[in-house]
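ok here's DsrE family protein, seq below lol
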Amino acid sequence: MGIIIETKEPEKAWNAFRFAVTAKKQNYEVKVFLMGEAVECEGLTHEKYNVDEQLKNFIAIGGEIMACGTCLKSRQKDGTEACPLSTMIDCLKVVEWADKIVTF
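and the structure came out like this:
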């Protein structure tokens, strides 16, 4: 399953990663691609919605995350180990690979 996240709005991003964690725990193969403002999700916390915690939970159970390199660069950010710099080709490969795509 491919999940494309395009928001850093705390509740939506938190739910996106909760969904990814749930799918992974149910033995689905899951890849997440962060696009647009979602590349800012790593480290994102909120009093009710700790996005970073869910992101780390997803990685801890073997989830794979990629982050749009152009989106990172436009924000003067670098890729990280958790969210490596990726390309539109990588996003396309996720879409081709996945039997289902979910977007948030």
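fwiw The mean pLDDT is 97. kinda neat tbh
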